[in-house]
Amino acid sequence: MSTAVADPTSGGTPEAPKSGGLSSKAKLWIGFGAFFAIFILLFLIFGNDGKNEAFKPQNEFKLEPWVSLHIGSLDLSINKAVLYLFLASGLTIFTMVWIAKRMQQKPMNRVQTAVEVSYDLTKNTITGGSLDGKLAAKWFPFIATLFFWIWFSNMIGFLPLPTNTEHEFTIFGLEIPSFAIYAATANLAIPLVLTLVVWISYHVEGIRTKGFVPYLKSWLPPGLENMSPIGRGAIFVIEVISHFVRLISLSVRLFANILAGHLLLLFMGGGLAVLLGIAALGALTFPLAFAFFIFEVGLVATLQAFIFATLSAIYIGGATSASH
Amino acid sequence: MDLTSLPIAEVTDEGVKGAGKAIALGVGAGLGSIGAGIGVGFIFGKEIESVARQPEMKSELESIRWLGFALTEAVAFYTFIFGLIAFFLS
């Protein structure tokens, strides 16, 4: 700590007469030093309020039932995850139908260009990369829908919407829930259902193209014809396990990426400062929140949708292809 | 050996429990990130190498690169999620 204080004072003073001769490395260190100096100054002013026990970060992901619906032991309550689900579905349907209705040749607007680029991506890169001919035409709508739905779901997850009913604020006498970010895909149930749909459909497609027993036989890698039945049985067990592991890996990948992104934004955007009771920490972490937000919106949200759709196509392709 | 005499067998102290959870989250997420970091660096390094060798393959390598990146990066998040489960849900 003391060295961090000493750095900016020694580095910050020579700014007046000849700062033009500084190398970019020195400028970088001065920048970092000034950053830390602001943090330490704020820390000295506001001090440490002690650990905050009342703030629970996990409550940001708690699903409060808005409309209680119970059928027997089945809980079908409407909560914010349901809202995000319907928002994502509505946006997917609306954008695609709206653009399809207004397709035009000559004056291309920007939305149409964007949709055409994403159509090309889903048709040629994702579906065309792993499936061919009739199968690609058959499964393209499914895989493209998966991509667009997950993409919209991820993207609206980064828009602050008034969904946090735990804390409300009043504006012009109107009680409005606090703005919070949440994504339907940050809840394990939704990626798991998508994964189950993909998992069952690629097995069904494999059985439909090859027949039940040949399909199970095709799980074995090629080149094992001379192996003893016991050895082949052992490899078959491993293949069965690998098919079940796909259920976990495909769903947890999407869920964990989105959840970790939201947690990171939550902690960097002030959660850490509140939790530790050090108000000055907010000044240090808030610029990082911007950087992570751009990273999440620009890369992770699209990439995870792309990965989910690509892997679905690869699984369907693997189940139907002739060799293995 | 009598297991109950070991401190590991009876964790009734709240402080020790909390410390264990914090260690689970910190060590789990930290070590997981090391592995995934090496893997992601390896993928991008190899991709740069391949493009330097065969620049005409750039567009074809792009989608494979992102696929590899996302598959590797997810490993860090598996450990992170299990750490969070240990910290918040146990």
What order do the helices and strands come in, and which of them pair?
The complex is a heterodimer of chains A (324) and B (90).
Chain A: H1 2-12, H2 24-46, E1 70-71, E2 74-75, H3 80-101, H4 110-130, H5 133-156, E3 161-171, E4 174-180, H6 189-210, H7 212-217, H8 229-276, H9 281-320
Antiparallel strand pairs in A: 1-2, 3-4
Helix pairs in contact in A: 1-2, 3-5, 4-5, 4-9, 5-9, 6-8, 6-9, 8-9
Chain B: H1 14-53, H2 58-89
Helix pairs in contact in B: 1-2
Strand order of the largest sheet of chain A: 1-2
Count of helices of chain A? 9
Termini Cα gap of chain A? 60 Å
Please outline the major beta sheet of chain B. none
Provide the β-strand percentage band of chain A.
Answer: 5-15%
Please give the CATH class of chain B: Mainly Alpha
What's the count of strands of chain B?
Answer: 0
Please tell me what the overall shape of chain B is. Answer: rod-shaped
Please write the string of helix (H) and strand (E) elements of chain B: HH
Radius of gyration of chain A over all CA atoms, rounded: 26 Å
Low confidence ranges of chain A: 1-17
Can you walk me through this structure?
The complex is a heterodimer of chains A (324) and B (90). With 324 residues, chain A is mainly alpha-helical. Helix content of chain A is 67%, strand content 7%. Chain A contains nine helices and four strands, in the order ααββαααββαααα. In chain A, the strands form two sheets. A two-stranded antiparallel ribbon of chain A has the order 1-2. Chain B is rod-shaped and about 65 Å long. The model of chain B has no long low-confidence stretch (mean pLDDT 83). Helices cover 80% and strands 0% of the residues of chain B. Chain B has 90 residues and is mainly alpha-helical. The chains are: A mainly alpha (324), B mainly alpha (90). Chains A and B meet through α8 and α9 of A and α2 of B.
